[in-house]
Design a protein that fits this description.
The complex is a heterodimer of chains A (118) and B (113). Chain A is mostly beta strands. Chain A has no helices and 11 strands. By secondary structure, chain B is mostly beta strands. The chains are: A mainly beta (118), B mainly beta (113).
């Protein structure tokens, strides 16, 4: 399957600072990338849909000013957690879909980023 | 909104046993996907189903896309210790086809050697 690389895999930051997480599609181009958040022993919760060259679409209840998404190229989307607080600590996962596929083409996931805010 | 109900929530089985888990939805999907997630990792795609009634195998794994397009099951035959993990179903497409995935709650599988 296609390869999606997420970086960093783990990050610890202080309260009030911002953290950037990168999601790259390594062997395909992705017009759409998705960002998820996962709490321990819970399912993946979609935060936003990132579209190359346009604004991200956020799910209800997700603060767009808190979670900034940039999808500047067909192979890179970034999620920035601004002014992080301990309650933002979580496992963040991105996924990407091949631009050549249809709307029902399966998406491939990155390895995830464990964010801990202290 | 669309929701998926996945069951069972967890399973603890003996090595060699067969496993079955399923997902149901209140609305239809065009694609059903089954993923496995191990601790600290992202989900890995196991099987993708694209047509109602489709039955697909991947090694010891077999999954089916329900005729009504509102359900799917995953079977694992002759389980082994490395099958341990969390299995998620996901639906894609349907009446509001934005391409995003809706996930089930997950089934945690533990295999006793």
């Amino acid at each position: 399957g296609a390869v999606v690389s997420q970086h960093p895999s783990r990050v610890i930051c202080k309260s009030g600072t911002s953290v950037k997480i990168e999601c790259r599609s390594l062997d395909f181009q992705a017009t759409t990338m998705f960002w998820y958040r996962q709490f321990p022993k819970k399912s993946l919760m979609l935060m936003a849909t990132s579209n190359e060259g346009s604004k991200a679409t956020y799910e209800q209840g997700v603060e767009k000013d808190k979670f900034l998404i940039n999808h500047a190229s067909l192979t890179l989307s970034t999620l920035t957690v601004t002014s992080a607080h301990p309650e933002d600590s979580s496992f963040y996962i991105c996924s990407a879909r091949d631009a050549r596929g249809t709307m029902n083409t399966e998406a491939f996931f990155g390895q995830g980023t464990r964010l801990t805010v202290v | 909104g669309q929701q998926l109900n996945q069951s069972p929530q967890s399973m603890f089985i003996q090595e060699g046993e067969d496993v079955s888990m399923n997902c149901t939805s209140s609305s239809i999907f065009n694609t059903w996907l089954w993923y496995k997630q191990e601790p600290g990792e992202g989900p890995v795609l196991l099987i993708a189903l694209y047509k109602a009634g489709e039955l697909t195998s991947n090694g010891r794994l077999t999954a089916q896309f329900g005729i009504t397009r509102k359900d799917s099951f995953l079977n694992i035959s002759a389980s082994i210790p490395s099958d341990v993990g969390i299995y998620f179903c996901a639906g894609q497409g349907g009446s509001s086809n934005t391409g995003k995935l809706i996930f089930g709650q997950g089934t945690t599988l533990q295999v006793k050697p």
